[in-house]
Every structure is written in structure tokens, then in C-alpha cells.
Amino acid sequence: MEPTAAGASITLKDVAAASGVSLSTASRALDDRGTASRSAAAEHVREVAERLGYRRNSFASSLRRGETRTLGVLVPRLSDTVMALMFEELERAASSRGYFAMVATSGDDPDDEQRAAETLLDRNVDGLILATARLDDELPRRLRKRGVAHALVLRTDGVSPSSLGDDEVGGYLAVRHLIDLGHRDIAVVTGPSFTSSAVGRLAGARRAFAEAGIDAPAKWLLAAGYGIENGYTAGETILGGHAANRPTAVFAANDNIALGVIAAAHRFGVAIGEDLALVGYNDIPLSARLSTPLSSVHVPLAQIAGTAIDLVFNPDMGPRIRKAMPTLIPRASSGPPRQFD
């Protein structure tokens, strides 16, 4: 039997007959939902299927089981490096479990988030993973009410299954590092106050301040967005005054904010790592490649992704909110306070 160009006319029955095995044996050998069998019979079936040009219709077989083997992933934007990296890890973790991940973006508007979620659900995804959840977000509550399998990733609303880094520990590690270097005049630029990540990182920073007996001025505790432009604006505010009134160190609640602070520092002639110590968060690949490599808090995205997918289908297996431990990666951007004669 000659295969067609696309293998459209080759059926599972044809593969079984050509392999000299039963239909059920051929089906098991070609089932891609789990770890492939390495038995001689299974290898033979797969060789025959490839030679004949057989292509298994996974979508149709999944529909017969009442599932599509797809996961919907909702992120604010893929132009954000962390969100893009998070989706890549989710895609890998989904694939290793026999699922296909599709992504939709929503920005930061709750109505747009709801519409994007419905678009994914209209495609009959088996579950949703949300990297968009706000502390005041109605979407997770609606999903719980409708019984939609879902998990939150990198953020939590405190109720729905969630997989994230321990943001409070991460914020503590960043500021404790600066304090241990000798800094006491430390500014903190957090993310949006509607996100659990920003709230947690600020709480960790405050814990480090309290532990060291430092009362950080309110003018040096700034809430911003998570974009580079937000960091630049915050950097202008912090560094724009007289040099004697500037902090000697800054903790930026993500690496994009830190990049913005670096740009503002350059404008004002402030040398990162010498005049100003700087610590970011998330340890994106660019952090280690800057002219002055950026100290940053590393978050294990692969671990968080795998846990999130497992939570979608097994939300009651262990804690519903699971936090991965971050680690501080010190680099040249965080040095001790500069000593002046």
C-alpha cells in the first residue's frame, strides 16, 4: 500500500494489518498521551505507520473522550519578557503531559481579560491558566462558580489554585542583600498595587527594613507599572534631585523596572554599581549581559509552570497555593555605598 502525500487515506486498521497486530495493539503503540512503549512490537507498529504515512487524528480521538488536550493560557502581554518566558515554560510543561497550550493576551483591563478568557473557552480548552489575576479580579471567582478547571500563575487571589514564586521572600532577599552591603538609604520601586506579586515583594522589603531598624522615607517607596518606561519615570523621581538627597541603592520589583532605572541613572550621570546599587527581580536572560550585569532575584519559572498545569487537573492534591523558592543572584550592579573623602 502506497502512502498518499498527507497520509489521509491511511487508517489505523491499515497500520494494524500491515504490522500484523490487532487494532488495539496498534492503537496503544500510536497513543501519544503518555510515555511511548519501547517494546519491539510497538516500535514495529510505529515504523510501519511512518512508512505508510499514517497520521493519528489526536483531536478527533480526544473529542470522543470529551476532551481536547488543549490548555488556554492568558497573559497580559507577550512583549513582557517574563510573560513570554512563562508561556514558553507552560508550553513545554503542557507538551510533556500530552497537552497543547494556546495563548491569548488581555492587557490589564478586567473586561478585556474576561473577553479573552471566553475566547479560549469557546475553543473548548480543557482548562485555563491565568497570568493576569488581579487581587480584585472577578474572573477567577466566576471560573470557580462555573466549575472551570483553572490555575493562576505568578500571581494569586488567595483562593483559586495558584503557582508562583514566594514574592515576600524574594523582596526580603533583595533588600537584605543591599543592607548587608552597608546601604541604609534604599528606595523600592514596586509593581502595580493590584497584583499579589507587587504586594508580596513590598512586604518582603518592609520586613528587611524593620529587621535592620531602617525607616525608609515614603518618597522612596514608589508604586509603578512593570514596564521599562515605568522604571524610567520612577528613576527620574528618585534621582532627579540633589545628589545629597538621593538613595544609595534601589530595589526594583522586576528587571524591566530596573532597566528603566538604569536609563534614568545614565541621564543624570549616576554610575550603576558605583554611585548607585541596583537589584532587580526575575533574572531575565538580559540581566547577566548588561554592561554592568544586574543583580536580580531568580524565580524558577519551569517549576512554577509544571506545578500550575498539575493544579489545573488536580487542585486538591496538596496545597492549593504553592510557592517556589526564589534565590538572589548578586552581580556587579550591587556594590557597597560609595565612600567620599
UniProtKB/TrEMBL annotation:
Domain HTH lacI-type: 10-65
A UniProt-annotated Pfam family: LacI
Coiled coil: none
GO terms, molecular function: DNA-binding transcription factor activity; transcription cis-regulatory region binding
Keywords assigned by UniProt, alphabetized: DNA-binding, Repressor, Transcription, Transcription regulation
Domain of life: Bacteria
InterPro entries tied to this protein: HTH_LacI (IPR000843), LacI/GalR-like_sensor (IPR046335), Lambda_DNA-bd_dom_sf (IPR010982), Peripla_BP_I (IPR028082)
UniProt name for this protein: Substrate-binding domain-containing protein
